[in-house]
Every structure is written in C-alpha cells, then in structure tokens.
Amino acid sequence: MTNREPLLRVEDLVVDYYSPRGVVRAVDHISFDIMPGEIVGLAGESGCGKSTAANAILGILREPAQMTNGRIFFQGQDIASMPPRAHRKFRWRHISMVFQSAMNALNPVLRVGDQFVDMVQAHERVSKRDALDRARDLLRMVGIDPLRVSAYPHELSGGMRQRVIIAMALALQPELIIMDEPTTALDVVVQREILQEIEELQRELQFAVLFITHDLSLLVEFSNRIAIMYAGEIVEMARAQELFREPKHPYTVGLMNSFPSLVGPKSMITGIPGSPPDLANPPTGCRFSPRCPHCTPYKTMVHPVLQEIEPGHLVACHLYGAEQELTHERASTAS
Amino acid sequence: MSAQALPVEVAAPPVMRVEGLTMHFPAGGGVGPFGTRRWIHAVDDVSFDLTPGRVTALVGESGSGKSTVVRCLARLYEPTAGTIMFHGEDVTHLKQRKELLQYRAQVQMIFQDPFGSLNPVKTVEHHIERPLKIHHIVPRNEIHRRVLDLLSSVGLSPAQEFAAKYPHQLSGGQRQRVAIARTLAVEPTVLLADEPISMLDVSIRIGILNLMHELKASRNIAFLYITHDIASARYIADDVLVMYAGQVVEQGPTDAVLQNPLHPYTRLLLSAVPNPEAGLTGRRIQGRGEVPVVIDPPEACRFTARCPNVMDRCRTAMPRLAEVEPGHLVRCYLYPNS
Amino acid sequence: MMPTPGNTPADAGMDPITNPQVPIETTVPQVVPPVARGRRLRVPQFFSLLIHNPKSLFGLCMLGAIVVLVLLAPILAPIDPNYMNFAATGLPPGPHHLFGTTQQGTDVFSQVVWGGRTSLLIGASAAALATLIAASVGMIAAYLGGITDEVLNLVSNIFIVLPALPVLIVIFAYLPFRGGIVMVFLIALFSWSGEARVLRSFALTLRSRDFVLAARTSGESMWRIVFGEIMPNMTSRIASGFLGAFVGAILFEAGLEFLGFGGGNGVSWGVTLFWAQNNAALETGQWWHFLFPGLALALTATSLIFINYGIDEISNPRLQRVKMPKQRKNKSSADSSQVTTTAAVTGGRA
Predict the structure, then answer these.
(1) Domains and CATH numbers, chain A
(2) A55: chain C residues, CB-CB within 8 Å
C-alpha cells in the first residue's frame, strides 16, 4: 500500500434517527478511508446502516436522520462542517452517486441528451453542442449507442437507463462515485455487463468507488477492499481476497456461508440463524452475540472494538486479539 | 397424510403434468397493421411434470415468463392453450367454485414478497386458520392447536406468541415462514414457490431453502421453485428448466444441466453468476442484452440476437425442444434432433 | 399504542446461543415507528391513535362536548323549543334566555340544543348510509372489474355530475311527504358518489397486492376477500370519508331546511336559521337568532374537520413532525431523498 493521502476519510461517524419510539442509532461510530482510485465495498444486510452512512457522506441525510458525531474529510477538507451550500457545491465537483432507484430518476419527458446538457451546464460553462458531444462520448463509454442521446427514458430498458445514470455520474469527472446497490434491481446478466463496464471505466479514468451492496460474492470480485457492516457498526474490514479466503468475524463467515455455490461439491449450508437486531433496542455487548455460534456470556457483556489483527485486516470480535481492554457497554460511554 | 416421513425415491408418478402451456396477453397499443390484435407471447409451449418429493426449478430472468407459468398453475390466470393435468384430471379450465376449492386444497402458492402476501391488519393466526376453516381440514375445536403445530413446523416458536402477532411485528424471514405455514395448512401435494427468497436478507435465505428441502422430504410435496438465481436452484432442485422469452430452452436433471449446459443461454446465465474465485476480468460474458418482450414473434429462435453461435437456420425456423441425452432436453440447432 | 416488537422473554427462552441451529429470527429489525403503519389498523388501535394525536383529540373533545350538550337537552334547556312565549319576543341574550328569543317568543337556546339532536342525527345517519353505499359500490367495482366496474362507475359518475341541490329542490317540491327519514335517504343518495370513486381507486391498489391473491389461492370467496381482507385495510380512509360526509350532510340538511324544504315544523339548526331568515332577524337587529345556530353548525363542522386532520396525520406519517434536537451543524440540504436522488443525477436544479 502506498502512503498517499486518502481521498475520503470518515472518522467516527454517527447517525441517529429520531422516531417517536426514541433515538435509533443507525450508524454507530464507523471510520474508514478510501484511497484515490480504490474500489471499496460496503456490505451488509438491509437496515445495517450502509445506505445511511453513504447519505451522511453525501450530506443528504433527511429528517428524522441526523449526523450527530464524526468528521468526513475529502482530500483533507472537512466537508461535514461546511455550510450546506458550500458542501453541495463541493460535492458536485468531486463526488457523484448512483442509487438503486436511480434508473427511475430520469425525467420522463426530456430526451436523454437534454438531461445531460442540463446537468453539465448547471456546473460548467459549456455550449449545448459541446455538452451533447460529451454525452455521446459518455454513452459510448458505458456501452450505449451514442445515437440514443435523442431517446426518451421510456424507450430504454432498465439496464440501459442505469447505464445512462452511470454515464451521467461520470460526466463531471468526479474523483469518487458512491454506488448504492446500483445493480440490485437488474437481472444477473445485465448486472454483470454493467459491473464489467464500471470496472473498465474505473481502470481507465481512475476514480474511486464506494460500492454498497448486500451481495458479498459480487463485492469480492469487484472491489479492492471490503468493509462488513452489522447493526450500524463495521465488524470487519480487509482486502477483498483476504476477506474471501480468511474471513475472521463470525458474521462474515456466516455471510460467506449463505450463498450456495455453483461449483464444488453440493453440501448443506446453514447461513446465519436469527435475524438482525432491532436497532432501537440493540443487544448489549457484541451486537452479533445472539446469533453468534462462538458466543459466551462474558462476551455478551463486553463490546468488542475494531482492531487491526493483521496488517490491513480489522475485526471487531472477542475471538481475536486476546489482550483487549474491557470496553464497557458502549451506551454508557457514548453521547 | 400430514407428516408421514416417507423415504421418497424417484420412481413416484408425477402428480401434476403440464403440457404445452401457453399464455398470451393482448398487447397494449391496440391492433396491428391489418386490424388484428397483437399478442404478447408470455409463455409458449411449456411442458413439465411435478413429482412428489422432488423440487423442479424454473430458472429465468425477469420477462422470461416464469411467474406467468406459476400463476397459470395456481389458477390465477386462464391459460391460452395447453393442459394442466392434476392427478390425471384436466384442471386447466376449472370454473365451478367447488372444483376450484378441491384443487386449491391440494395446490398452494408461496409468493415472492413476504411483505405483501400477508394482510397487514390480520394476525398470524388468522392467516393460517382461514385455509383450515375453508377446507374443513380439522374440526373447529382443534383449529387453534393445528395452527400452533403448523407454526412450530416451520420453525416459529413459541408458536403461541407468534400466532398473536401482526405481520409488521415480524421480520422478512419470519413472514415468509408464516406464508409457508399457511400453504401447509391444507396439506398440499403441490407447492408453487414464486421466488420465495429473492426479497429476503441474504443471511436468512438459506434458512428458507433448507426449510423447503425438509418439507419436500418429510411431507412428500412436489415443489415448483421459481428463481432467477441459478445457484440456489442447484442447491435445492432435482430438475431444472431454463426459460428464455417465454420458452423452455433447456431442461433436465439439475446436475446434467448445470454441469453440462448445452444451450448458449444457459451458459450465459451460468457465466454471469458472481464467482469470487475468478474475479471479473478475463471472463467477459458473451451475449449482451436483456430478455425481449415477445410480441407476435416470427418463426425463429428467440435467442438469435444475443447468441454467440447463431447460424442462418436459427433465423428462419424455431428449433424444437429435443432430447440430447436421456432426460436432458435442449432447444437449439447446435444439437441433433432439434 | 401498539405492542412494541423486540426482545421478549420468550424469545430469549429459545436461546439460539446454546443452540445455534435454531433457525429462528429472535428479534425484529424495525426502525419504522408503529404509527407509520397507521393506515392499516384495527379499529380499537385506530381509536387509541386518534386520542394520541393532538388535532384529532381536539376535534374529538369538541364533538364530544357538543354531543353531551345535545344529549342533556331536557336538563339544560327545559323550555320547549316550540313554545311561543308572547310575553318575551325578540329578547337579546340574557340570564333567562341565554341565547335570547325570537320574534315569536321561542327560546333560541332551546332551539339550538334540541335542534342539535335532529341535525346531528340526520347528519350522522345520512353520512353512515352514504359511506355504506360508497364502500360497497367502490369495493365491488374495484374487485370485480370488467362490466360491473363500468356500470357502477357510470352510475357514480352520473351522481357526481348531477347538481345535487337543484335536483333535491325539485324532488322535495314534488314529494308528497317530508320528514327526517326522507331527508336522510335523499342526502345520502347525493353524497356517496365522490367517496365511492375514492374508495374504488384505493381498493384497486389493494386488490393487486399479493395478500389478496394469496387469499384467492387459499380458496376465499369473493365476498370474504372484499369485506374481510380488503376492507379492514381501508378503515382510516373510510372513517375519514364518513367524517367528510358527516360535515356535508349537516350542512346539506341545514341548507335544505334553510330553503324551507324540510317543512319548517321540526326543530333543527337549519329550521332555526330558516325562521331567522323568514323573520328578517338580521334586518331587525336580532343577530342572536342567526349567530347561535350558525355557530353551532360551524363548531360541529370544525370538530369533524379536526378529527379528519388527525386521521390524515396518522395514516401519513410524513405529515407528522418528530421533535429533533437542535442541529449541531446544518446537515440536511434537501428534505426528501427521492428529490435529492433525482436532483443528484440531473444536476440539482430541482
């Protein structure tokens, strides 16, 4: 690993939801960074806080969610403390995003090309003709016939619309693209095509990607590093192949065991018993303890902290790193 | 016949026989050039058997027509052509409520979305006792006990507590278990499962598949498992049908089809499944594109536009689904007999 | 409030720690507050939610007070509302006649209190009848579809475009008999159609939901599906429709009476207003003759509308505001993620 400055650094991020039932901590003290040109995967089940974390980075949390702690540095600048206007402007220049539902975000009454032009002209002073030229280039890059600039969104299939969105995300040459389940709504074949295109583009243009998905096997293929989130926390973070070959946290192991394989001998797999906790009332100690096959009563009392057990491999689990300080229940120390 | 643990083996005769099932929907946009109605060919000429104690998987992407097949079998749609034989009787066009009820007491369906398939204002108990009452499965005074039995049998215990809950108090996996318990209430011989795990969290999907596997063995149920996830089909199914644009392109025993895929589309599907061992690069898939909507198709193979092995013949005639190896059928001119 | 899901003692008893094979989900991942599901509640829970909402609580209290006053009429207003005391005509409000008296010497307070009985009763019955028709027509049309739907739609469209008041005036002019019951039927006849269309479209969205298909595959009959499975999901929509019809019916009744089509011999708010108009009460400075029955009408309508606001908030949690602590830093740059998403990809010009 080079010792370059990280492109994005998230420090101790906390996001709370205020509901009539009380405060729900959706993202609980997570920290990670993304190097320039790196693809980082954020994996977890629904409700684990991965999308909320992304929204916090983008500064688009909406009530009743609120970032209550933490700092977010982009190229060394703390973007979370910027005033909203400046933050938004900054974000347009440097970060773009692709959402799962983004393919429905195209304006149905405008031609694809015009939407490109509008978007580019909102940020740069370019002529319509230049903007359209750029749109054609970008469409070609994502594998769409450039003539489609004059198509309306409904004339495109779901996969093509998602490609258009990716092309738009590339238009301003951002350093970071956040992709939140960009291919989940698509069929496997289309999903694969799009991912291969993203990977090729990434190699060519060297942007960094934060890729959020529930599909771990996909991430292992696609990303350089992976962070696993469970119940609002990062429980394991490592290089993709390392995570795949030597998962440490029992939750990661369980996730790996949840996908039937197409190769190798057929055997009974068990997945993970139970289901994720209610974040309004999380289990004490380790959040995974009620579902963990290795759990002991002692471990349910003490909250494990994320620590580096091998270079670049971080785990929050009592099975690793024996001499650990007894951090008492997080609730008493937090807030 | 509820919980007999039969050691099932293959020889059992099929309980349901689907032959030439065809479903056409009128296309939007009214009539074609010569004043004829245009038709979407959602399902064309699909045939298969369902056998007690076996899982048959119907694999395909969205638009392949697999859900339409299930809905025809569940008698939610009226097929355009073809027959559905159940226990040797033609049930394709059952109309009378009494006959339909008899059929529904045997053939049940599990829906894809566990958040939509349970009525939000009704308790879990209501969902399971309704079929018991409609079909008079047990005497009235035993209904409650049977509800609890069913809940425990799908792994929801303490059953008493789950029975009183409302759907929104359950997680996705628990809801899907309730949905399965509801179908089991009538002691069905056939279960139609329409993508039962695709909307669940990854860590609990396997639990539902394992439950289905256990039910097939312990209750000797014939399963039809609809999925887009070919790996899960490999995990649970005994037989596989691969559908593309309304037609079966390949069908046969799971191992035969997945280890020796013959049709180019089956190969494409298999190559698109994420494989952490190999990584993305170097496995650029062939046959880009999406499943087309088939409106009044010409006489040609429907996969021609994406097929890497396309020949002139494919564009002028429709290959037949032909047996290439024993039990292994494929619809492609690359192989003899088609 | 609804029972809180989560860790229950019995869940813990199952103990997947000692037995990791137990394929049970022990806890429920739920971040959505229970009120967010208010749209599909059973009646008792629904009522308790109403009480917890400040707006509907206000409306309920107000309506409750009006109903209590009206029910206590024999105690509160012992003077016969039709008794003409020629010794006390046209008196302004005072200690003996709280709301004053009319030119005929009848007591306005008595008329308002006793008249409330008629107005509320006719309003409620007409609204109930209209809601019943609306719900049946709307849901049957939605569920059956096809020709039934077309016919029922046609009928409700006809009733929507018919100008109710003129037609009623014509009917009343030719009707050989008059009275409360006729009034109820006629008002109901002209108030169900709009609601029927609303309920139809609501039921249409429910009809395509999987739980209805699931009920069909388990063999439920059409009637049970419509009234046992679909309708309970529409409780709050129906309740709000009923309240709307209630307001309409009370005003409708008052209007008809005011125009003299009720016969003018009963006691209701409309009748009092009718006589006030007849006696040119305003011109002669007897404002109390107009003001009090008018106020009673307005207050009743207000209370019903407040309850309706409450129902809206319960069934649409977006309208509810959760108290947020003071923002440490101003983070949110937009108020809806969908908007933000769109804005994000199209350049934020939204």
Answers:
(1) 8-107+168-281 (3.40.50.300), 110-151 (no CATH)
(2) 337
For residue B14, the 8-state DSSP code is P
Q: Which residues contact B43 (CB under 8 A, 6 or more apart)?
A: B21, B22, B23, B65, B68, B69, B72, B79, B246
Query: Residues C287-338: pLDDT tens digits?
Result: 887 888 888 889 999 999 999 888 888 776 655 555 555 544 443 333 333 3
**Which positions ≥6 away from C219 have C-beta within 8 Å?**
B100, B101, B104, B105, B131, B134, B135
* Per-residue model confidence as pLDDT tens digits over A274-329: 777 877 788 888 888 888 888 777 666 788 888 888 888 999 988 886 544 444 43
Say yes or no: C213 contacts chain B, CB-CB below 8 A: yes
Distances (CA, A) of A270 to A255, A276, B210, B217: 10, 16, 8, 18
B203, B206, B266, B303: best to mutate for the A interface, most A CBs within 10 A: B203
Cβ contacts below 8 Å, chain A against chain B, sum to 115
- Tell me how many domains chain B contains: 1
Whether A318 and A292 have beta carbons less than 8 Å apart is answered as no
Instruction: Judge: A222–B287 Cβ closer than 8 Å, yes or no.
Output: no
**Ordered DSSP codes for A195-255:** HHHHHHHHHHH--EEEEEES-HHHHHHH-SEEEEEETTEEEEEEEHHHHHHS--SHHHHHH
Chain B from 180 to 239: CB within 8 A of any C CB: 182-183, 185-186, 204, 207, 210-211
CATH number assigned to the domain comprising residue B216: 3.40.50.300
The answer to whether the bond into A64 is cis (omega within 30° of 0) is yes
pLDDT digits (tens, 9 = 90+) for C229-283: 888 888 888 988 999 999 999 888 888 888 777 665 678 888 888 888 777 777 7
- Judged by CB atoms closer than 8 Å, whether chains meet at A188 and B269 is answered as yes
Instruction: Give per-residue pLDDT as tens, C215-231.
Output: 988 888 888 898 888 88
B53 located within any domain:
yes
Instruction: Provide the residue type at C293 as one letter.
Output: P
d(Cα A300, Cα A286) in Å, to the nearest integer? 6
Instruction: For residue B253, give its domain range.
Output: 16-106+188-296
Per the document, the length of chain C is 350
Interface probe for A, chosen from C31, C48, C321, C342 (most Cβ of A below 10 Å), is C31
Chain B, 147 to 176: residues with Cβ < 8 Å from chain A are 171-174
C-alpha Rg value of chain C to the nearest Å: 26
Interface ipTM > 0.95: no
Q: Which of A20, A88, A300 sits opposite C35 (nearest CB)?
A: A20
Within 8 A of B121 by CB-CB distance, chain C residues are 40-42, 232-233, 235
Q: Within a domain: residue B333?
A: no
pLDDT > 70: percent of chain B: 90
The secondary structure element, H or E, covering residue A95 is strand A95-98
Low-confidence stretches of chain B (pLDDT < 50) are: 1-10
Sign of the dihedral defined by the CA atoms of residues B208, B209, B210, B214, in that order: positive
Contacting residues for B283 by C-beta, under 8 A, at least 6 apart:
B271, B275
Is B271 inside any structural domain?
Answer: yes
Whole-number Å distance between alpha carbons of B316 and B301: 8
Contact residues on chain A for C10, CB-CB shorter than 8 A: none
Give me the residue label for tokens 């049709």.
B263
Could A220 and B274 be called an inter-chain contact, meaning their C-beta atoms sit closer than 8 Å?
Answer: yes
Q: Which residues contact C316 (CB under 8 A, 6 or more apart)?
A: C39
Q: How far is A70 from chain B (nearest CA, A)?
A: 29
CA C313/CA A8 separation, integer angstroms: 40
A260 in reach of chain B (CB within 8 A) = yes
Q: How many CB pairs under 8 A join A and C?
A: 159
Assigned domain for B160 exists:
no
